[in-house]
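Researcher: Please predict.
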Amino acid sequence: MGRASKVKNHDEAKRWLAEGKSYAWMVQKYQEKYETETTPSYWAVYKNRAGLPLRIARDNDLIPWKVEQPHRWAYDLVMLRFEARRRAVEQGDTNLKPLSDYDETRLSSWKRGLAEANAVVYYDPTTEDGFFLVPREESDTDIVRAIRPGDPAKPRSTDK
């Protein structure tokens, strides 16, 4: 038999998630209100299991690779996540908040650097850095290099 849920009031938890309360806020509120310890990842899993919309933009065109653990917070990947979110919001995804002014400025600067260098993002999981800016080729249709036969990167799972 599975573990009992830490959630004391499922309607309340779902309402908070629908209202866009941060996971950090929910961790603190649950500790104060119910003296129950949770983590941000607990709430992310709870939200997923409850069938509520994700707070992240999944864009397999911008992030087509299965990214290895050591590279998950690489700056180029963070910028690709920002761009995925920006595009999703621009296309009307109301589950996501727009980027902050600060993050929008960082993204704009990064994209300007890509354009000035006429480069795209390439991922090689067998290297220490993982992400590289490489010269744009005629076959590049976005800001990333698509996975090609023989590349060390593997395609990201599309089952989410």
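Model: DSSP finds five helices and two strands in the chain.
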